[in-house]
Amino acid sequence: MNAILKNILAVIAGILVGSIVNMGLIMLGLTVISPPAGVDMMDAESLKSNIHLFEFRHFISPFLAHALGTLAGAYVAARIAVTHQMKFALGIGVCFFLGGVMMVMDMPSPMWFNVLDLVGAYVPMAWIGWKLSSN
Asked: Are 94 and 122 in contact (CB under 8 A)?
């Protein structure tokens, strides 16, 4: 297969796998840690108006979903890419980071979570995904 096509496939596969892992962990988190009473997790307005009811435990699943989704996506991209594996892995991290920035801007959440999520869940996990892929 052509190297350029394989690198394009690496990006697509990385984003797809990362997104699947992210959403799977979010859904799993909803079954393990119930949301506060009266909050509809599938309704953005319900989330926005009831965010004050959320406790620390409610933020574990989103952080893990963002971090492990990025890790998985970066790992897959780096494994498939023919050249510049680190750049592709970090590119996946940046893509997911931009999604995280959009969520921070759209969905109110505590500042500690925003900082932890944006600083710890994306680029560092993409770098770890690249490191794991090269072994």
From this structure: yes
Q: Judge whether 97 and 122 are in contact, CB under 8 Å.
A: yes
Residues 63-74 have pLDDT tens digits of 999 999 999 999
Cα separation of 17 and 71, whole Å? 10
Burial zone of 29 (CB within 10 Å; 0-12 exposed, 13-18 middle, 19+ buried) = buried
pLDDT in tens, 85-129: 999 999 999 999 999 999 999 888 999 999 999 999 999 999 999
Residues 18 and 92 sit within 8 Å (Cβ to Cβ) = yes
Q: Distance between CA atoms of 128 and 24, rounded to whole angstroms?
A: 21
Single-letter amino acid, residue 39: V
The token duo for 47 is 């989330």
The angle at the Cα of 51, spanning 48 to 53, to the nearest 5 degrees, equals 145
Kindly state the tokens that stand for 61. Answer: 């699943």
Residue 86 zone, left/alpha/beta (φ > 0; ψ -120 to 50; rest): alpha
Q: Is the pTM of this model over 0.85?
A: yes
